[in-house]
Amino acid sequence: MEILGGPLFAVAGAGESHGPGVTTIVFGCPGGLRIRREEVQRYLDRRRPGSNRHGTPRQEADRVVLLSGLYAEGEIDCLLSGPAVSIGGGADSATESYEEGFSTGEPIAALVLSTSQRSRHYDQFAGPKGQVRPGHTDLVKYHKSKGFVDIRGGGRSSYRSTISDVIGGSIARIFLNEQFGTVILSSISQVGPLRTELSLAQHFASVAQQQRSQTITPEQIAAVEEKLDSAEIRSLDAEFAQEAGELIKRTRIDGDSLGAAVEVVAVNPPSLVGEPLYQSLKVRLMGVLGGLNAVQSCEVGDGVQVIARKGSENNDPIRQSGYQANSHGGLIGGVTTGSPLVCRVGFKPTSTILKTQHSVRKNLEEIDFALDRGRHDPCVGVRAGVTLESRLAIELMNAALMHQSGRVDASNFKLF
Amino acid sequence: MEILGGPLFAVAGAGESHGPGVTTIVFGCPGGLRIRREEVQRYLDRRRPGSNRHGTPRQEADRVVLLSGLYAEGEIDCLLSGPAVSIGGGADSATESYEEGFSTGEPIAALVLSTSQRSRHYDQFAGPKGQVRPGHTDLVKYHKSKGFVDIRGGGRSSYRSTISDVIGGSIARIFLNEQFGTVILSSISQVGPLRTELSLAQHFASVAQQQRSQTITPEQIAAVEEKLDSAEIRSLDAEFAQEAGELIKRTRIDGDSLGAAVEVVAVNPPSLVGEPLYQSLKVRLMGVLGGLNAVQSCEVGDGVQVIARKGSENNDPIRQSGYQANSHGGLIGGVTTGSPLVCRVGFKPTSTILKTQHSVRKNLEEIDFALDRGRHDPCVGVRAGVTLESRLAIELMNAALMHQSGRVDASNFKLF
Amino acid sequence: MEILGGPLFAVAGAGESHGPGVTTIVFGCPGGLRIRREEVQRYLDRRRPGSNRHGTPRQEADRVVLLSGLYAEGEIDCLLSGPAVSIGGGADSATESYEEGFSTGEPIAALVLSTSQRSRHYDQFAGPKGQVRPGHTDLVKYHKSKGFVDIRGGGRSSYRSTISDVIGGSIARIFLNEQFGTVILSSISQVGPLRTELSLAQHFASVAQQQRSQTITPEQIAAVEEKLDSAEIRSLDAEFAQEAGELIKRTRIDGDSLGAAVEVVAVNPPSLVGEPLYQSLKVRLMGVLGGLNAVQSCEVGDGVQVIARKGSENNDPIRQSGYQANSHGGLIGGVTTGSPLVCRVGFKPTSTILKTQHSVRKNLEEIDFALDRGRHDPCVGVRAGVTLESRLAIELMNAALMHQSGRVDASNFKLF
Amino acid sequence: MEILGGPLFAVAGAGESHGPGVTTIVFGCPGGLRIRREEVQRYLDRRRPGSNRHGTPRQEADRVVLLSGLYAEGEIDCLLSGPAVSIGGGADSATESYEEGFSTGEPIAALVLSTSQRSRHYDQFAGPKGQVRPGHTDLVKYHKSKGFVDIRGGGRSSYRSTISDVIGGSIARIFLNEQFGTVILSSISQVGPLRTELSLAQHFASVAQQQRSQTITPEQIAAVEEKLDSAEIRSLDAEFAQEAGELIKRTRIDGDSLGAAVEVVAVNPPSLVGEPLYQSLKVRLMGVLGGLNAVQSCEVGDGVQVIARKGSENNDPIRQSGYQANSHGGLIGGVTTGSPLVCRVGFKPTSTILKTQHSVRKNLEEIDFALDRGRHDPCVGVRAGVTLESRLAIELMNAALMHQSGRVDASNFKLF
């Protein structure tokens, strides 16, 4: 089953890049959370193609509608002021959708249509003589499905499927923020060979040490968000962002592509969450972040750097106010310590390039492959941040509910 | 997670009775199955309110659109000839949907809107002073959700949620029929105190014995389907159906309601499927059939009758052509024997009645409860058959995939 | 996966009837529950062959050892006073086990060996010419496993596998009793054609109505348990129990067998537990109770009787003190109301009989089947009660943890 | 639930470092696989403390017994020649265990006792004034469990729990090898600051390119295994291994510890396995490898190196004989390509060191922490290889069964 998170908070998704739309069902949001469509839309807008100067030129409105799981007694008319949805045209075939409401605990469904004009020329890729794009899923998915695969724009393996991640993540973020003050951020730390030494982890560790408290204030968070928003690409380091933006432009003109690394951090996470061992939060985060399309590495805390260290350098000292350093990245034994959760994710250079490459047809006939036409996103890392943040949020929320399940309070089990 | 079936073939659903619509995602249909929207629609039409003289008078078109998981190379225009879907109005906000295609193995999403005019007067039920309908989920769901519950028309607990069951079931039925010739049928066997002795199980057992083969031909099945279709209520016994129809009418006028029993049978099921013990097909079927809204009993094979028997009367003799009787209902040790799968499901009388009853407000203040207004379906069993068939199909398909998973054939694991 | 319950509280089992032993792992017991090995043993003793005059004559000590998941600081020596376990003989190959301790939240493993002398003559059943016992899993499991099946005494499909159910159930019962005062009981209500009208459900409903409170006191429960313990077979009706015992004896002498029905009831259950719809507590209970070996029917509350009723007769009135009747069996919409949970489970007559029957060899060659030798339990219902109680407890505990997971209390998420 | 892998092939584990033993249940091995206890034992011996000059000095025999899920008609006596198991002493309390047999498809249970003499002095760590070892789970697990945690030797969070991983992995390896010729190997590639440039991935890529075939012969594999076995620490690079061994010795004497990196590779993996997207094999492998105790980074294929590359350098060319390079690490879109599966896992330096560190008591009182006594394993990476191999095997086998489930062959569903 295509489920992110779970078993308590989970997100199911469906939909291909060039199909009618992306459908999402979010399970397990406890009752009573105020959800506004605009808030979900705002996260989706960050993910959207065209939202960013350096992403793919595809333009999609990606307007989300919420179709279930919300309610507010006495405010039904207001609730139903979201965009109308219709099937088949005709006035009696339309219905309102939810603009905002309180979660009821029931599944929350959301729909985003794919309405941009789509080319219908896929001859280069169609059928057993269809060509295989190196680095893409074309070949494996063709044979895995015995030929029954949607070849248009990557089909389900497209980044477009991450709409579901972002919708689910946005609900988790609202919940985590309301319950614990948690905020999840990401910063691009590498583009091709260019790196920055500035990191969210380091920044918040300094703040914590200065104020002798791990709790980061909304103002401190807002200051960081402003930096991220205003940079050329979403990074804490404006100068690096500027250079990286230039490099991406040049690389696009070259018809080539670039890898990238993104740091993702949860500030003010709930403590003590994460099951130990086989289903630990570390297992879960490594999986969902490291398993995202195009990702080839995932690190927690200080990541690959800790390999070269001695224990006496690496163990984080503990004081009454909390851990005094965050080499551990907020997780010990797969359980949260209250220090910021820190992961770093490495993306390979986008597989689609305009240079000729050795490849095959789906029937394994050898060819020199060159793309006939197609959109080209030279650095996928540039807009992957919101997806990583969303996946982290989904797992963190599920882990929080898991932890709560073990703290039974009999007063919650009374009716009469 | 609100998932039917699984882990291999599974159906996720979302949507409340009077909300914008019901969203469904079907997971795990193997690639290459030809699926026509009209076939799914046909099953939905059987479930639809108003499709039947004896159901609720609510009128809904319940038109389904398929939004993902289908494809057909070179036939894309034909594929996309399903009803258009739009969000927010405006031509550029619309997209086509799938009229038919081959499954790709990816999740299949479907949407049914709720477009009938809805009353917006729920004052009788709203808030902490809202009244509780005896037999309904009003009270438990209000307190379980701490008051954040959609009170309109039963919310998520309405029979409207079974749209997802039927969509998922229709895909399973197409698959099972194509692979194994399996057909799933149901017949109403009791309405209130009226019973029929005719049963599908008995009918097909006679056929099998006469022809000395368990395989039921399409013609033999069609003959039964015709009987079911033409009866006043869906039952093998036309006379009983007639009387039951009369009784339902009288009971509706009385403002009262009736229980019912429905027999559900899978003819030509695949043999050897079902995991033994804790996840056996018997566990799964008892759960999904016996756990449906308003159901209070579920029987396999000869059900409660076997309690009073001796072993020497009850053990089904075995010959080379198969089991010579079907007291076991097609399952031994939770595994299919190839005899028809037989279950019988008992529904309580519909909880909504027009008589005054002792009840409380949600804050537990005692009241004499009488319904201000509302639609009234005097016998839910009358249109539950297609839902039961669907749930059986979903579990049977999942069990078939489970069985296949253990029969590894290395030729399926080659690429180069 | 062979898992009972879950995803929060779950029981995994392994082990065949005549194999070395039955291994059990219990997942998800929250930390801090005092567990005594003797308490687990006491439930196992009720399940044990030979514990009962009317069960199979097989004698097994079925001594349980607890191997993980328990702890008590400062009391380690006392903790480790359980039976020693050794592998391979030799003093240095032995270890202590836990006699009692507090749960830590980690998985609790338990082992019961099969040490009774086993006949090693299975020639009648071995190989492709092995004979098939009608009503047993012999044929389907042989072909499902392509011949790789343990034929000794029913293998994994034997009632011996329910040792795991009882171990998991005993931990759930300790938890539910400590948290909510819940007690789970069962009473045999039918043996072959003999029935009793006395029922636990009716008894506790009367008590509740008299005292105008659903809470049953420990003394009231103890009085019922005494009746159950002292009856010839475990039933509330001593006279019926006496007759049924006689009938079982006569039937054993005859070489025949009998069906049975068992009522299982949870008194003082936690209210508001159970997810609605697809994973409702009704779905789950119908599955685990109705799916047990040899069961062919499962009813909730008034079960099959409600089919013939009108709504006006069947809806349970509600007053401030709770539901005034329990036709609903403690579940509305799959959620607990606080009334006793009531199920009734119907068992087929034991398949093993001494009469000659039509059957086949595993290669489908037809034979007249008569048992060469073997133990014979004429009425499996007689000792199934503790298994049913255990399964109900497991699902109820899991559902309670699920409910708690949605009631997040931020004070549980602090470390510093 | 503490489950590795699944839903088809899965491993459940239980048991603490200093508790009575480690219990394991392996689910979902298809019937007919020949399993020898000695083969499982051989893998366990590689994991065992004391098996290696550079691991912890703890000595455990770690003798495994197999208790269920195996069978062989007509060979029962041979089957039962495994070590005897007894509970409570006394001849009638003992039973044989399985020395070898064919899998039946039922759960396979295994038990390893902890029989070494254990110190019972844990005063330094006990109770609310117990001291917290920096880098260990002491603090989070104490508060997560509200004080009910086994403090002895890391409790369940000890590496001893990986016995279950290795048992499950050994069965998966036997299966994968028999079906596909798959072999799983690991090589240590970094110890503290020392690195080797030799890698299994590179070695097998060269072999494949030379012979123009991805299939690695048993002889080619045996040659590599010999190198790994004979090195001072398990690495392809004997010289590096020698130096690293020296460094570990010096670091132990210093009372300090070292990080390490381990490359793990599956040669001749089945092609086309892995579900796309949320449950892709990449998600699963990143999770189980990257989530292991003490791991802080996980890379697939060329890992972090690909970030700095251009697409034109990074895309692996495809020819008729397969991928011509393996930057992708055998996974595209989370599905296997038939190239070796390649992961690299980074371990932090062992948390236990002999130097004084800033820490707290469990009640958060600040202390200078120094270990009173205790065993000390200066570099956990040295014996983690077999655990990583096992986890990879478990996920790969599960993914293979998942793939097979979608390729339904009706001939597997016949009984009569």
Describe this structure in words.
Four copies of one chain form a homotetramer. Chain A has helices at residues 37-47, 76-79, 138-144, 162-180, 200-211, 218-230, 238-254, 281-290, 311-314, 385-405, and strands at 3-5, 10-14, 21-27, 34-36, 64-66, 70-71, 82-87, 94-97, 100-103, 108-113, 183-191, 194-195, 260-267, 295-300, 318-319, 322-323, 331-332, 335-336, 341-347, 357-360, 366-369. Chain A is α+β, with helices and mostly antiparallel strands and 416 residues long. Chain A has a single domain (4-402), classed as Chorismate synthase, AroC fold (4-Layer Sandwich), CATH 3.60.150. Chain A has a five-stranded antiparallel β-sheet with strand order 1-2-3-10-5. The first copy, chain A, has a five-stranded antiparallel β-sheet with strand order 12-11-13-19-14, with helices on both faces. A three-stranded antiparallel β-sheet of chain A has the order 4-9-6. In chain A, β2 and β3 form a beta hairpin. In chain A, α4 (162-180) packs across α10. The longest helix of chain A is centred in the C-terminal third of the chain and has 21 residues, at 385-405. Chain A starts with a strand and ends in an 11-residue tail after the last helix. Chains in contact: A-B, A-C, A-D, B-C, B-D, C-D. Chains A and D meet through α3, α8, β14, α9 and β15 of A and α3, α8, β14, α9 and β15 of D.
